[in-house]
Amino acid sequence: MKTLLGRLALFTVIAGLCGCTPPEEDVHPKKSSSRSYNLKRYIPKGQELRALEQARSKPVVSEPLLASEALREFIPKLPDTRISQAVASRRAALKEAVRASFARRAADKMSALAEQLGKEAAAAAESAQTPEEMQTRVAEVTARYIQSFAAVGETETAKGWTRANAEQGRLSVAELKNVFQELAVLLERDYGPLCARKAFPVLKKAADDYGLVLSSVKTEEDFEPQLARVGREADQALAQITARYGDPLLILSPEKVSVLTARMISAHQRVEQVFEKLYSKEAVLQTRDIFEKYLKGADKLFAEAGRLSEYSEKLDALNNAYREEMTSLQVKLNEELEQKLLLARQTRAL
């Protein structure tokens, strides 16, 4: 019981002393002000140093200087309408061939009539006994042949000179297929061999559909829209194939190369800013040797024509090499910085 009372009494005394002791700020106001100033000054500085230390542990270069997807911006965006153009061209050629064929037949008929007219008129003139009789007989012959000439004209007008016969249609289809064989070579050049193989059925179907229209459509009003449909559907099918399988040929003009180079320089300058903040201006100079090597590789790549896949693969390799070298430089700079800090601590300890 005495022990318990003694502890209570001791606690009361201590509490009283604590309650009566003024705060340190009241006793040593200058000392408190100095400590508060130091805290305000050095705590943010420490936080900043810690943030820089954490930043140095992460790669500055994690994204490519120039992503290979950027190359797609320089692929022609115009739709490929070479199939429909070939169909329209063959249609125009067929129309002209039909016209020329009808014209030749009509000319042959007219020529034969004229020859016959000449013979009959000469015979009529030779058999005439008087000039008046000759004039009458020649006029009769001429009048009869004028009616024949008119009949030939009416017959040809009724035909219209537009519809091709079966032989002309087959010849036109064969010509279109030859054009498509040449187009297949161009498609391989422009989009790569795989895309050209995938597009071959589209070309074959367009030629078959063209022949089907020639053999079935009877009126001129239906003929043109049907052939336009054949070309339009083929172009749409080709567009789907090139979008999926196309590996287009890429040829970069000096102007396009300048645009890409400017993007790479701008991206590296942002990297330099980070390196200067994390390390020093001297570190920035070391990054430029790495970037110069990257830039020379890109210049060599852009100077040659190549497929998009080849360009992308080589550009990705350049980006990876740049990233690896920059990360290695960071490791080197971190090690050097650690050595300097260690030496500084050892010097202060002495």
Which structural traits does this protein have?
350 residues; 83% helix; 11 helices; rod-shaped; disordered N terminus; mainly alpha
Query: Considering DSSP H and I runs of 4 or more, what fraction of the residues is helical?
Result: over 70%
Q: Which residues form runs of ≥5 with pLDDT under 50?
A: 1-21, 23-28
Shape: rod-shaped
- Assess the beta-strand content as a share of residues: under 5%
Record the strand order, biggest sheet: 1-2
Largest sheet: 2 strands, antiparallel
SS field, number of helical segments:
11
Q: How do the SSEs run, as a string of H and E? A: HHHHHHHHEHHEH
Question: What is the β-strand count?
Answer: 2
Q: Average pLDDT, to the nearest integer? A: 82
Structural class: mainly alpha
> What is the rounded distance between the termini?
59 Å
Radius of gyration: 47 Å
What is the multimeric organization of the chains shown?
Answer: single chain
